[in-house]
Write a structure and sequence with these properties.
Elements (H helix, E strand, L loop, with lengths): L5 H14 L14 H11 L2 H18 L1 H5 L1 E7 L2 E6 L2 H9 L1 H12 L6 E6 L1
Parallel strand pairs: 2-3
Antiparallel strand pairs: 1-2
């Protein structure tokens, strides 16, 4: 939502008083480019995180291989922490041993700001 700046409100008040049209709505706000609005809307509705989660889920099999991807699934990304659901304790142990390499591959693919850490949970 756009709000008028203080200067725009003062200008509007001065012009409406001079014209005798006090109480008219402020409609001279500058136009905004749609390209600037979309990222803020995605961030406000938290859809940008959903897009990243979908990208990670799609790339998961390529990064860890077919066998491990059949026994694991990405749950989500919150504050840069990727949560993975692991079905078997043996796979959990393997992932713990390879955590650094997997994290490095994820960061190369999606950027270091997207995923900072990996957490595993059974389920």
């Amino acid at each position: 939502m756009r709000y008028a700046t203080r200067q725009q409100r003062l200008r509007h008040d001065l012009i409406t008083k001079w014209r005798g049209l006090e109480g008219e709505p402020l409609n001279e706000l500058p136009t905004l480019d749609v390209g600037h609005l979309i990222p803020s809307i995605l961030k406000e509705w938290k859809l940008d995180e959903q897009l990243r989660e979908d990208d990670v889920a799609a790339a998961w099999q390529v990064i860890v291989g077919e066998f491990i991807s059949r026994h694991t699934a990405p749950d989500g990304i919150k504050r840069g922490v990727l949560t993975l659901r692991v079905l078997q304790p043996a796979i959990h142990h393997t992932l713990m041993m390879e955590k650094g390499a997997i994290l490095r591959k994820l960061q190369e693919r999606f950027g270091s700001g997207t995923i900072r850490d990996i957490r595993f949970r059974h389920g």
